[in-house]
Design a protein that fits this description.
- The two termini are 30 Å apart.
- The protein has eight helices and eight strands.
- The chain has an eight-stranded mixed sheet with strand order 1-2-3-4-5-6-7-8, with helices on one face.
- The model has no long low-confidence stretch (mean pLDDT 96).
- It has a single domain (3-223), classed as Aldolase class I (TIM Barrel, Alpha-Beta Barrel).
- By secondary structure, it is of the alpha/beta class.
- The chain binds iron/sulfur cluster (SF4).
- Iron/sulfur cluster binds next to loops.
Length: 225
């Protein structure tokens, strides 16, 4: 597994836990709005696992958990042994995924290897290509959604919302896919690393309208940043 980023402390990315974040390189999608292109294209300098584990050894009594994000962590065949090793240090694990490798998720879920899963849903299924720029089999996404929903593991689904790409009707269809489970809408923000420079997020007023539209769905949270 190639690790391309390491954030030593986060209070926000693993609900209820003080954690660090490991970012794996490489991805099976190619989203125009990706904030992490250097990771996705494997340009970020590799961070050795020894460095990570030496940090974890020192923080055994100070951190609760480790977030594994990317890139897309499930593309790596040695992800599972890596997670097992982190657990041996006594840490909880959260996995961020785009859900395109349900077979890996199944093994992780069946063996209860993680404590939290966050899966991105990028668009309504017949528009996925517009966002991720790859032809994919959306049945795999549906399989991952079902696995996560039935997992008995804390989880959330989430979408980075982009003006001109997601209509309110699209968002409603996407939210309905998860049938009441926690769903976060997080606004796109432009960063230097984003490839498509013309993309934009919603204004505060528009976000308020989105929030108002979904107020009857208690599982939906609009994140403003
Ligand atoms: S799935 Fe995530 S990491 Fe991969 S290209 Fe899309 S936004 Fe970037």
């Amino acid at each position: 597994m190639r690790i391309g980023g390491f954030n030593k402390l986060t209070t926000q990315d693993f609900p209820g836990n003080l954690a660090c974040i490991i970012f794996t390189s490489g991805c099976n999608f190619d989203c125009d709005y990706c904030y992490n292109r250097d990771l996705v294209e494997c340009h970020a300098p590799e961070i050795k696992e020894e460095e990570i584990f030496s940090y974890l050894e020192e923080r055994k009594n100070m951190l609760d958990g480790v977030v594994i994000s990317g890139g897309e962590p499930t593309i790596w065949d040695d992800l599972i042994p890596f997670i097992k090793k982190i657990r041996e240090y006594g840490f909880k694990v959260k996995l961020d995924t785009n859900g395109y490798r349900p077979e890996v998720l199944k093994e992780i879920i069946d063996n209860k290897l993680v404590d939290y899963i966050a899966m991105d849903i990028k668009a309504i299924f017949n528009e996925y290509f517009k966002v991720i720029k790859k032809d994919i089999d959306t049945d795999k996404l549906l399989e991952s959604i079902e696995l996560i929903k039935k997992s008995n593991i804390d989880h959330e689904f989430r979408t980075t919302i982009i003006k001109g790409m997601h209509t309110i009707e699209d968002l409603e269809k996407m939210i309905d896919l998860v049938d009441g489970d926690p769903y976060y809408l997080q606004n796109f923000r432009m960063e230097d690393t984003v490839k498509a420079k013309k993309m934009e997020g919603f204004t505060e007023e528009e976000l308020k309208n989105i929030k108002e539209y979904f107020k009857g769905k208690s599982n939906v949270t609009v994140r403003y940043v």
